[in-house]
Input
Amino acid sequence: MLLNPLLSLITPLVGVIICMFFGQFFGRRGSILIGTGALISAVILAWNYFFNSMGGNQYFINLFGWFPFFINHNWSFVFEGVSSTMFVVVLTVSSLVHIYSIKYMEQDPHIIRFFTYLGLFTTFMLLLVSGTNLLILFVGWEGVGLCSYLLINFWYTRLQANKAALKAMIVNRVGDISLIAALGLSLFLIGDLNLPISLTNVNLLSTDLVLVSLVGLLFLFAAVGKSAQIGLHTWLPDAMEGPTPVSALIHAATMVTAGVFLLIRISSWLGQSTWVPMIVMAFGAITAIFAGTVGITQYDIKRVVAYSTCSQLGYMVLICGGAAFSLGLFHLFNHAFFKALLFLGSGSIIHAASDEQDMRKYGLIGLLSPYLSIIFLVASLALMGLPFLSGYYSKDSILEVLIATYSDVGLWVYWIGLIAAAFTTAYSFKIAYWSFYSKTTYAFKEVFKNWHSISTLEIYVLLTLGFLSLWSGYIFRDCFIGFGGNFFGNTLLYSTTFVEAEFLPIWMKLIPLIMMIIVLILAYLAFKSPLLSLNLSQFSLTYLKSFSFLSHKWYFNLLQNFFVSKVLLNSGYQSFWIWDRWILEQIRLKDL
Output
């Protein structure tokens, strides 16, 4: 039993090594078979251990030491409730993305390199979530950043892909610097870099609580960069320039979930501070409402789904600030499946529509592909939080826990989350209706003329994700937030507001559902004509200015370019002339 978790980490790495160094000998089919087979084997082992860890079992595996000349830490791994959940999420989505990519990328001449990058991305993410110390986490953290660059820039002859990959890499440097600072301060305060896997061995009360809060704040800034929270979110929509399977993997299971996982893993440190959790909640709430308002004004189908990811990550972060870490992990678990379904479904639409991504040029394509329309509708309804689908069990629980705090802060964040959920309902309806059911005269004839059927393999992958989007919340709710369970043992702080939320009045629990029905009616009236917004004469100047503000993403890109990028470029240019040309070169000339 002890070998199972470690095998689920090693198996993808072996597949990557074979594809990387011997792919030319095995050829396209052999490399695809090896890479995909390694992931399928790993995911079977991961699910096996996931079910066996529901009793609170924890396994620690030490391999060997490293850095003996600096600090005495080992290459050691832990497998318990949190890490087994992340293993299931990462490996399930990654294996399905691998299978989906077999047909989606079959015409690409560099498919061996693509599968190598996918496997390496998965391996680094598994390393990140299973390490027992911050050094291993940091290796995985930097590894997923590197692989995101390689995958976003996979089609490296495209200028926009180059720029998007560089942007993702550079923006994430801010969070990485914060993580390095947190590592150094943690080493100074505690004397080691071991993660607080068990709450019983956390001894921070004897240290300066101001410094402990500072460590938590630095970890938060690291999570803000990786999980694309407000301020450092600008890389995420541009990451759509990579192949669609890459978008599904980044948004559903790997890179963007790393920041949320970091907050969950350091829950005991966040619990020592009184004001850092408030900042965590603020970041999450503002991100949720920001991404919701921007997503409703976008027309590119992949960008709408990208901003929905940003919004849902805001929910995960804000509930971590509310100390309900298991609920944040539960939403991460459910979100991974319906978000992967949305992205892969979008990829199938784009692929079948001759690479057309503008939703205004679709319409009634449900007649051309009824299976795809039904599967995509399931994902959209799960994202909305329709009762008894996976998103309902976690997203509505987040709102219930917030209102059950009976505090001013909790009430404010609840209303912000409720408004963000309204925008989520609106753009989810917009995607499904415009793409499949809208009887519009604006649909482009070329989309229908060049439409080709979706492969059976892709349909099977989408059906699997559809099943998980339907049932994952119902099946696993009690494991994550139920009473009397021992899934997480003593690894996570337990929020007493779960009890209060369970016994809220029925009318309070029905508020999100009533709001969703009202928004659906309004969304139908607003989006029944995809080009409605082009008739500018029927709208007031205030509406047009508001629409322009939202469609330009709150002008964050403009502000970053003007106040950050331009300043840094100018300062770099000036320092080059002052330091390099006037000082260093003059010293060199004198020496000669």
Remarks:
- The chain has a mean pLDDT of 84.
- The two ends are 68 Å apart (CA to CA).
- The longest strand covers residues 59-66.
- Residues 69 and 192 are 14 Å apart (CA to CA).
